[in-house]
Specification:
about 250 residues; single chain; mainly alpha
Length: about 250
């Protein structure tokens, strides 16, 4: 969930009590914004809030409240898990107002739409890769903002998901006796995602496959790397015992 400070600056003008739906043609954009924000924050009537925020843009498209309303409309879609709709609003905002004060948040929320859809690592990680690319973009564009800092934190978690996917795919290939394909996946984890927790398992799986293929020296190297970097890991203990069992059976 997005932290409070991310939207706090946008809702400080919120009126604290519910009011009847105003006539957009006879109501100021600021009042329309307060009414819309009240629907979102206090009443949690998300569909009505989206419609109300959109009214600001339709009736007062050149006001500052219309810009804030577009951002909050995207946020409301995000709350409803309508990620495609949120991304559509945010892409339009970024294209039209790339230098606006709310642009950093628009980039961040767009990245979060993909991040929120990261699923079980055994499934396709298309959205995970999209989230990673979008988060990197935020971190590079806005490094000294809260959005950039939050994006950097989530990048590390996204790498974990991608590494997990590669290990799972490698295991699938290994069980199917497609050892070359399995090794490629494990090696990719070690090279590309070495700061994730799945590197340890990938090294073990590499050793396991090398031993199956009779490549004892390669297995020994993988186990040595595992032992040097993760001497207390259960994966190293298992790899060491596996190697001893393998050599004893010769």
């Amino acid at each position: 969930m997005i932290k409070k400070y991310v939207i706090l600056g946008m809702i400080l003008t919120l009126v604290g009590c519910a009011t009847p739906k105003p006539d957009p043609e006879k109501t100021s954009p600021e009042e329309l914004y307060n009414y819309s924000a009240d629907l979102l924050i206090n009443q949690r009537k998300y569909t009505k809030a989206i419609e109300a925020f959109d009214d600001i843009d339709r009736y007062y498209p050149y006001s500052k409240w219309a810009l804030k309303g577009q951002i909050m409309m995207a946020f409301t879609h995000y709350i409803k898990k309508e990620y495609d709709e949120a991304e559509s609003v945010l892409e339009r905002f970024i294209q039209l107002y790339p230098g606006n004060q709310y642009a950093p948040y628009a980039y961040y929320l767009k990245a979060m739409c993909s991040y929120a859809q990261i699923v079980d690592p055994t499934r396709s990680q298309y959205k995970t890769q999209m989230a990673l690319d979008a988060l990197k973009d935020v971190a590079v564009r806005f490094p000294n903002t809260n959005y950039g800092k939050e994006a950097s934190k989530k990048i590390a978690l996204t790498y974990e998901y991608l590494a997990a996917e590669q290990v799972k795919i490698g295991e699938y290939y290994q069980k199917d006796n497609n050892y070359a394909a399995a090794l490629n996946r494990y090696i990719e984890v070690v090279k590309m995602y070495q700061n994730t927790r799945y590197t340890i398992e990938a090294l073990y799986r590499m050793a396991e496959v090398y031993l199956i293929l009779g490549l004892d020296e390669e297995a020994k190297k993988a186990i040595s790397v595992l032992g040097y970097n993760y001497p207390t890991s259960i994966w190293y203990e298992r790899a060491f015992k596996l190697y001893e069992k393998h050599t004893a059976s010769k």
